[in-house]
């Protein structure tokens, strides 16, 4: 019988008249269901870092050295809409190099990331630490590979970057107001877009719910590698989101810019959040042995990059 307009509709018709003492059984059932769901999606299961690490030891920007502070002042002053349009044009206009993923990891190894307060290890070691932590936690192979390559976009530094400010560091949208939850928010006062009549407003060139695919994130290693992986690998969309947004801390960790998201972005945010602990908290793990791990990862790379030689 259809419910009359005046009667409340029960969303749980089979539970109408449920006795209170059965409630704890229901809670157990929900917990079992949650565990089963997690098993089916190991990407989302908790990282082992949750119990092991003192997370307050990471990303301490107020206490950071001048190298880090100076880096962010420059990045925040120079990442403008005009620069971002130019960077994307330059990117599309050429292939910078052709080499395998492993060769790219070796090439990147000489870069010391000025924005990073948490590691003094080389890039190859950081990539292996990230991937190894995922492997130990039983994460899917595609996710391990994502961990292995996620910072390879820093190669940009060797191919016409203007410095490190357009390669590394946290990212944020350009073309709309800079959110206070970005680290060192006051340094945006020196950005020419800060007081722009459109770019300086809350939504700027965007509209509520427009979706992150339509948002221009500050140009750097995330955006660059995202385009390469999207075109040349068989990685799933969750992996591409992990790559594109892994430095977007104001979004995935501080909760800013949610008003720009569309429905698809909510699922992608979960993927990025599942990725983040491996990137950040593995930085204090033991130094991995490159030569010992190389055969395992060479095979993994081949699985997702059908053309061994990648166009960078
Ligand atoms: O300093 C780091 C580093 O540059 C990372 O590669 C980047 O992903 C982080 O967002 C940033 O905080
Ligand atoms: Fe990164
Ligand atoms: Fe990283």
From TrEMBL:
<feature type="binding site">
    <location>
        <begin position="246"/>
        <end position="247"/>
    </location>
    <ligand>
        <name>substrate</name>
    </ligand>
</feature>
<comment type="pathway">
    <text>Polyol metabolism; myo-inositol degradation into D-glucuronate; D-glucuronate from myo-inositol: step 1/1.</text>
</comment>
<feature type="binding site">
    <location>
        <position position="151"/>
    </location>
    <ligand>
        <name>Fe cation</name>
    </ligand>
</feature>
<keyword id="KW-0963">Cytoplasm</keyword>
<dbReference type="Pfam" id="PF05153">
    <property type="entry name" value="MIOX"/>
</dbReference>
<feature type="binding site">
    <location>
        <begin position="169"/>
        <end position="170"/>
    </location>
    <ligand>
        <name>substrate</name>
    </ligand>
</feature>
<keyword id="KW-0479">Metal-binding</keyword>
<dbReference type="InterPro" id="IPR007828">
    <property type="entry name" value="Inositol_oxygenase"/>
</dbReference>
<dbReference type="GO" id="GO:0050113">
    <property type="term" value="F:inositol oxygenase activity"/>
</dbReference>
<keyword id="KW-0560">Oxidoreductase</keyword>
<dbReference type="GO" id="GO:0005737">
    <property type="term" value="C:cytoplasm"/>
</dbReference>
<dbReference type="GO" id="GO:0005506">
    <property type="term" value="F:iron ion binding"/>
</dbReference>
<keyword id="KW-0408">Iron</keyword>
<feature type="binding site">
    <location>
        <position position="279"/>
    </location>
    <ligand>
        <name>Fe cation</name>
    </ligand>
</feature>
<feature type="binding site">
    <location>
        <position position="59"/>
    </location>
    <ligand>
        <name>substrate</name>
    </ligand>
</feature>
<protein>
    <recommendedName>
        <fullName>Inositol oxygenase</fullName>
        <ecNumber>1.13.99.1</ecNumber>
    </recommendedName>
</protein>
<dbReference type="GO" id="GO:0019310">
    <property type="term" value="P:inositol catabolic process"/>
</dbReference>
<feature type="binding site">
    <location>
        <position position="126"/>
    </location>
    <ligand>
        <name>Fe cation</name>
    </ligand>
</feature>
<feature type="binding site">
    <location>
        <position position="150"/>
    </location>
    <ligand>
        <name>Fe cation</name>
    </ligand>
</feature>
<feature type="binding site">
    <location>
        <position position="246"/>
    </location>
    <ligand>
        <name>Fe cation</name>
    </ligand>
</feature>
<feature type="binding site">
    <location>
        <begin position="113"/>
        <end position="115"/>
    </location>
    <ligand>
        <name>substrate</name>
    </ligand>
</feature>
<feature type="binding site">
    <location>
        <position position="221"/>
    </location>
    <ligand>
        <name>Fe cation</name>
    </ligand>
</feature>
<feature type="binding site">
    <location>
        <position position="154"/>
    </location>
    <ligand>
        <name>substrate</name>
    </ligand>
</feature>
<comment type="similarity">
    <text>Belongs to the myo-inositol oxygenase family.</text>
</comment>
